[in-house]
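[scheduler] slot 2 assigned
[scheduler] job type: sequence-to-structure, two independent chains
[scheduler] chain ordering preserved from manifest
[runner] begin chain α
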Amino acid sequence: MTLDDTRIPTGNAGLDDILRGGLPQNRLYLVEGAPGTGKTTLALQFLREGVQRGERTLYITLSETREELTVVAASHGWSLEEFDVFELSAIDAMMSGREQSILHPWEMELGEMVRLIEAEVERVQPTRVVFDSLSEMRLLAQDPLRYRRQVLSLKQFFAGRRITVLLVDDMTGSKEGSTQLHSLCHGVFTLSRRTLEFGAARRQIQVQKLRGVDFVAGFHDLAIRRGGLEIYPRLIAADHHAPFVGEPVESGVAELDALLGGGPLRGTSTLVTGPAGTGKTTIALQYVDAACKRGENVVLYEFDERIGTLMVRARAFDIDLAVHIDSGRLEVEQINPAEMAPGEFAQRLRRQVEDRGARMVVIDSLNGYLSSMPQEQQLVLQLHELLSYLNQLGVVTFLINPQQGLVGTMQSNLNISYVADAVVLLRFFEAGGRIRKAISVLKNRAGKHEDTIREFRVDAGGVRVGEPLVEFKGVLTGTPEYTGERSPLLEDRHGA
């Protein structure tokens, strides 16, 4: 008999992306995970998808009552009346009063339970079945070999009936979990939950195996929201590419653009780094303002500063973000610490780029990004993949990176060359008894750039960049000192 390779949607768009189209139909799949990982919600989504496609579906529950399932469904705005439910209490009622035999009670109960389940499947004639959960069958079997044989018997029963089956296992009652069943099932999905020292728990899903099907391997973040599980497929930059022209992106300040050979190119990332208070965010906002005025869509992710404070500060520098927000050109998203997994952040950004057509992305700041996702693994690698994805789609990205300290030797917790194509460095310097700011470009992979140091100033007139200041000392030590003439220095504008 030739197996049918037709794919069916799971009812979860993120999982379908991971499976590159859905599940091969008429097979047996194992969904395993500890209590609270989202197995029941995923199973309900699977059945609801079948109902919406006009299919008959059946939920066989041995671990939860119908009332408990009703509460779970109602929390997502669903009704349990959409599909057939066969619960353990119904099985107990059918088995009560039957005469005992020479068989052990547990042996008779297991056999009778399986026969009643098979009879219900024959009566309903479903195309999708959820069996929740195998742990009850494991407890009744009391023996690993008998348990495996019983599951194999169920698999053979479903084999010729054109039914797609999800076996749910909460992995209780067995020291080895359910690994002994992996070889029996066509595919295995493992859900996990990890409690952090601070913030919300992290949930993930992993496809352990799926015979004959190409899928996205590894761990994928997920969250339980009203409406079901939101699964965020792991981002693979190589899967995304769109042709674009790598033209310079202008800020509206000619001297600023000149530092980067006309401006950062599309499809590149620019890191703006320096101590707190030097104007890193303001430089990014200058490019944001110019992009919105050109009619481009922009998204700004704010990890550090509150949105209200950001808008007031920008207005003081003659940048009105509210106008761009009202026009729909700019969206500013506040990211709360420890409330978002890296996969969810990547998915949000993808929606901005692919659905909304964002052409510029600002992340303020990288330190905030790293701090807001504590205890996550390989965050810098995930950030690199995110930037590669943006670059391949022609998006220009600005990364704000505050350095530790105000004066003296500065330190950064990031490998700058690894994450950015261009690096803009800001510094405080002393001249004429005043603290001033200097700006320079350390590198630009995309093309030429100035190697000069210029004065940088932000006031009521906006962003200003002065003439090259040639007589400096101590720039690379972190405490530049200007020893030249006063004439090249920027002064206050009249009326500012």
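[runner] end chain α
[runner] begin chain β
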Amino acid sequence: MTNDTHDALTAFAATAANAVAECAGLAPRARATCLAEAGLIGVLAAESAGGLALGLDHAVPVLHAAGAGLLGYPLLESMLLAAALGGQAEAARIVLGEATATIAWAGRATLAGGRLSGTVGRAPMADSADLILVLTGTGAALVGANAAGVTVRPGDGLDVEAPDCEVVLANATPLALLEADAVDAIEQGAQLLRAAAIGGAVETCLAAAVAYTSTRVQFGKALVSFQALRHAMSRQKLAAEHIGAAIARSLMRPDDRLARAAAFAAATRFGAAAVESALQLHGGMGFTWDIPMHRHLRRIRSWEAQGDAPGLHRRLAAELLTANA
């Protein structure tokens, strides 16, 4: 990495952190405007759509900041969808913050006769979105959230601040269609960016645990003086470094599908465990809304479900066994 590239990524990280902090307390549509004005939604999008046409290496620090700051906005979905739509009008609307967009990650809709039917799920914040991408058997289709034949309803999930929704389609007309290769690019990019967001959450929780145990006194000593707690935080730090190393390796090998899958697998393997440890170090306070530990844990569990982490681990294990048979 050159010094210029390092400086550019550092600047992106700082801009993203400031924008995420500014979004706190805003409504979803106001967050879209804030993120668009900072240039974050269009990092991956084509220049013809008002984007910056940059690579995933520039998107990673943005999602890291979003995860660290508990951003309540489908930024990952908006960035990837705006890029996949190329120079289409809908891409420009997303990049400019004029339309909020999300992706239903679970399930497949049926496309027949130019109409969509079926029920899909795991669509983060679809209840406040304008555009929703739904996967089909041959690619994906973009629909208007308020269009005829499209119904958004609450779905399963732990995250009440960025809830997953279900989308019911009854002969809905798509606004645009994406081919299978575009969907594959979206799914691969999502694996890496989810890993970055989980890494941001882990580092935030670790910093909070260090600060708390350094100031909290029991039995006449700061908690951090107890060896068992220092060991727990050391494991959290090691988890953060594992996630960061997996992401860095994936960025160095942009055409390696396994490296991207491994980055997400590492994040899901170590991320939730590290945050749970930080939560326990806070005692009962970690479960209150004033302390964000359980909120980060909820968000990580949602990312795991959206990316089908259990299925990914099984597929990776099968691939490795086959390759080494």
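[runner] end chain β
[qc] chain β: The chain has a mean pLDDT of 92.
[scheduler] slot 2 released
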